[in-house]
Amino acid sequence: MLSDRLQADELPHVNMTPMVDVVLCLLVFFIAATRLYDWDENEFVVSVPQVTDASPLTAAPDDLMLTIVRPGLVALGDTTHDLPSLAKILRQSREHFEDQGVVIRGDSALNYQDLADVLSVCDGAGIHNVRLPVRPRGDETTTN
């Protein structure tokens, strides 16, 4: 009799909580998944990166040091050139490197027109990275 009473107290019991959790999770998953298929590509405004021409990975060359020797003559390194031959050299240098720089030096006794002629040659060759080194009056130190 005792065993009949223990069996009567232990009726089968099914816990529904895990099954409800799984069904709700599946429901949310399928609702979200079906919404993804309805989206059109044009609904999103995306800015896609563009490819441009790559510049060379080499280091920039040193600036060309131009020294105005006298009107119409410019020294480049150890050689002296007239303005037409200087223009040819600057165009060749510009073809090799687009941002070729130039430093123009000259004696303070030169006319401004002599500097303007060299600047005009640089502009004609397409070189726009031009620097003019200066120093204050009375400073007699030389810079190389």
Automatic annotation (TrEMBL):
Q: Where does the secretion signal sit in this chain?
A: none
Q: How does it sit in the membrane?
A: Single-pass membrane protein; Single-pass type II membrane protein
Q: GO: which molecular function terms?
A: transmembrane transporter activity
InterPro entries, A to Z: ExbD
* Taxonomy, superkingdom: Bacteria
Keywords of this entry: Cell membrane, Membrane, Protein transport, Transmembrane, Transmembrane helix, Transport
Cell location = Cell membrane
Any one biological process term the GO annotation gives: protein transport
User: According to its UniProt record, where is this protein mainly located?
Assistant: membrane
**Any Gene Ontology CC annotation:** plasma membrane
Q: Where are the transmembrane segments?
A: 20-37
Indicate the family of this protein. Belongs to the ExbD/TolR family.
Spell out the protein name for this chain. Biopolymer transport protein
Q: What is the lineage of its organism?
A: Bacteria, Pseudomonadati, Planctomycetota, Planctomycetia, Isosphaerales
